[in-house]
Amino acid sequence: MGVAIGVDSHKSSLAVGVLDEMGRTVGVREFPNDGRGHDSLIDWLDDNSPDRIIGIEGSGSYGAGLARRLIEAGEEVREVPAFMSHRERKKNPSRGKSDVNDAVAIAQVVARGKGLSSPQREVIYQDLKLLSDHRDQLVRARTQLINRAHKDLVVSHPGYEKRIPKLNSKKNLKEARALLRGDQSVRAELIRDRVAEIRRLDDKIAGIEKQRPRLRRSAPR
C-alpha cells in the first residue's frame, strides 16, 4: 500500500492527515468543505502523495461531496466507520482530541486496509434510508387524507361505505368521485381534492417501491 490519507469531514471543514509507507505522519491540513476547498485538497495531495488511498469518515453525510469529487477524479476512496477511527484514537490518548488528530487516526485505519468499503456503497445505504423515511411520511399523509375523506363522505353520502368499504385502491377512489358527480358543495369539492391528493401520493409511493430494489442492486459488493 502507498500513502494512507484520512479525512475527518464536518459541515464546513475537512481535516486531512497523511501517513507515509512507514506509517509516519508526514502532513496535516484543513480545508473548507466546499467546491474550492475540494480542489485545493486534491492539489495539495498531488504535490505531496501521488500514490495514495483516501479514507473518509462520513462519506455518506458531510463528506459525500468530497467523496463524489474524488471518485470522479479516479481516486481510490474508502469509507471509514466512526467506530474504527474512535478505536484507533483510544490507542493514543496523549494526542488529545482535535480534527487533525482525528484525521490521522482515520489514516491509520486506512493503512491497515481491513474492513473498509467503497463510499458508493455507504451513499446507496444512505439513499435507501432517505427513501424509506420519505415513504413512511407519504404513507402517514395518505392515511390522514383517507380518514378525512371517509369522514366527509359519511356525512355527504350516508351508508357509502357499504358500497365502497375502503378508499385504498384506484377503483374505489374512482367510485368515490362518481358519488360526487353533480355535487357542487364545498364538502364535495374538498373530498375531490383529497381523492386527487391520495392518488398522487399513491403514485409517489409506488415510484419509491420501484426505486429501492434498483438501488440495492447497484450497491458494490
Describe this structure in words.
The model has no long low-confidence stretch (mean pLDDT 89). The chain has a five-stranded mixed beta sheet. The protein has 221 residues and is α/β, with parallel strands linked by helices. The chain has two domains: 3-117, Nucleotidyltransferase, domain 5 (2-Layer Sandwich); 122-218. It starts with a strand and ends with a helix. Helix 3 (82-90) crosses helix 4, helix 5 (119-156) runs antiparallel to helix 8 and helix 7 packs antiparallel against helix 8. It is rod-shaped, with a radius of gyration of 27 Å. The longest helix has 38 residues, at 119-156. The protein is built from eight helices and five strands.
CATH architecture of the largest domain: 2-Layer Sandwich
How confident overall, as mean pLDDT?
89
Overall tally of domains: 2
How many strands? 5
Fraction of residues in helix: 55-70%
Instruction: Record the strand order, biggest sheet.
Output: 3-2-1-4-5
CATH level 1 class label of the largest domain: Alpha Beta
Structural class: alpha/beta
